[in-house]
């Protein structure tokens, strides 16, 4: 019986036999052995009494049973051996499993294919960890604040960080699970639609109220407005346009990103301190600026042609979509995942803050150890949205009519003042100047929807934070960790805005008045038996304002960098 070569899933029979160092029977001139003749007679006898179709079904059943047993019991051992036994394993959407050369030979003879399709393995997720028993951080508690009547404002408090090396070793290898939402895409509108317009902008689009409500209905796959609506790629003709080399550099950020921004030359760039060598090599430090700030950095000699100021890579944004610098700052603050699409984690700092703790230690303490995906500090004083809105009006942070309109809109949607009924939520008002988060679909959706509220209403993101958070939490198991403001002040130092620093650094010019003319000599004293000069001179000393003791009525000095004073 001659055996022809039939192509199978994994190559021809001839190639299989050559790889096994066996000479193909097609190439040899040696006569068949006696044993082979006996096998041919037995096969002919089976075909004579059973029929070819039944024999084929029998062989198919045997092969299927063998492959099934091989997958259950033998596959793992052969897979660990590597080598030639398993030649092709592909994972992702399906897994195809090769058989041994002998099985391929038999199957190819019968004309069958030995490709077994298995369901993909479940993806790996980070599910948190616990520190070992007896670890000092397990029993760490905050000490009572120092009783210093001179310092009544907010201040930092101790935080139990792990050493940098341990924090680096605990960085998760897999992402955290994203509840319900698995695939998030973003709206792209070449021609903006303004039908049913209710706030919005050319940068963020003009989503209708129905689209806004639908964006809170969490599905497995979603497409939402998330800024940059006029371009297929963020930073390219979308408003907030970025240089091509900066876009390429941000795409290469695949781990941790520390980001900040300065617009309108409003702040000085603060160089991070206490940063490990490993972080200097692996963390992307991105500082977003506008053209006005770029001009100042170049003219002052602080930035050279390499676009670096210390650890910061300066990224210049062109074609700024807003006139309000505070609203522009919300773009890198809330939409960082769109400009650094491959980053896994990010730490956002307002431009007035200086980072003084290593990024790995911050992420370990506030995300990984807590098994959290989004962390933000609560406001040090206010915890109610209505109180926050009134404070913004008093401080002139935004025009009162716009704040009132936003609050009334939220009240009609069901927003109520914060009470203990909201526990375990400890506050409705974040501090907002620091955000620590993981870039997974659900947290990216949260910041997209938060930015949409900033784009639609006022730029005061503390007012809209709780509304977006509560809407998402009512539909999906998504939690936001709010840590203490004193803990935030442990890893960032708050500085003054640049205009105030210039005022404090300017020399104080004091107008000196000419000395007064000498007074006429006093009349001669009467000659008495006692000498009253001492008492008279004492009365003159007490009555003269020019003889006041030095330091008895001066002003207190203002020290730059005092962390108790809250700059605007």
TrEMBL record:
Organism from which the protein derives: Lupinus albus (White lupine)
Protein name, entry field: TOD1/MUCI70 glycosyltransferase-like domain-containing protein
Residues of the signal peptide: none
InterPro entries: TOD1_MUCI70, TOD1_MUCI70_glycTrfase_dom
The entry's keywords: Membrane, Transmembrane, Transmembrane helix
Region of interest (Disordered), residue spans: 542-568
A Pfam family: TOD1_MUCI70
Parts of the chain that traverse the membrane: 55-75
